[in-house]
Amino acid sequence: MEITVGTRGSKLALAQTQQIVGTLEEGNPGLTCRVVVIQTLGDKVQDRPLSEVGGAGIFVKELERALLLGQVDLAVHSLKDMPSALHPELRLGAFPRREDPRDVLVVGKGVGNRNGLPVRARIGTGSIRRRWTLGQLHPEWEAVPIRGNVDSRLARLEGPKALDGVVLAMAGLNRLGMGTGGERFFLPFSVEESVPSPCQGILGLQHRRGDHGMERLLTAADHGDTRLQALCERAFLESAGGSCHVPIGAYCRVEKDGLVLEGLLGDENLRKVVRRSGSVRWEQGNKEEQSRALGRDLGLELRQEVGL
What we know:
The protein has helices at 11-27, 41-44, 50-53, 61-68, 128-137, 150-154, 170-175, 212-218, 224-240, 287-306, and strands at 2-7, 32-37, 74-78, 90-94, 103-108, 122-124, 142-144, 165-169, 184-188, 203-208, 248-255, 258-266, 273-281. By secondary structure, the chain is of the alpha/beta class.
């Protein structure tokens, strides 16, 4: 049996898709996956901020169109790139085990910690959430807007106008097999210091609704705790009304007897940014719905407090 798997064409997207292909083929003997590369609007336009290009969904719409037209059977997404509302004819069928959710400061050779950077360090980031976080942790630093793939962002550490550091997602570096050392060093922020983007480090496997054969195949890739995190954080994103125009972060921690959710939300001018936590203890019933309810409740609370 062969299925076609759609993905973006970046080095990171291809690397994480190959990992999913390996998991699916190993878990479904006789299955062959053929990878199809699809270029998205976000890949084509990299000289402008996401908020100017189209915001939510610019890395997703072309992949969804390919699913709807039957050009691919499955699409692999970085879940943090997906808008909270899905096309009604499509569904997210699996959430593989989460990678490291933390943000990481990548610096040049010889910098062992953040105190080793210049007092007025210039740090590259394309995220309003990361820009606000840097301002809280190191108000003396300057956040410099950047866009592009991992390689192009790391290249900003070199040359006559080199930045002192760039902030990236640890998950992407891990999936690319990039380690610290040599000409660059990784200085991760804890999730307490920098609340990650909702679903950072989680992949979403999307297929056509009603494709029960695909649902059975995807059980080999689904991870229970990651599913609960994804449902909780996506519910927070939807309830909070988040977009790339405002700082928004969420990280759900799975514990033995329930979930703890840390949420962050602000307005686009950064005049008011609120951070709150919530929790749920498992009761008899559906854990997935309890996870969604926790995200919805905290998202609504922050949205009302910020005034969005």
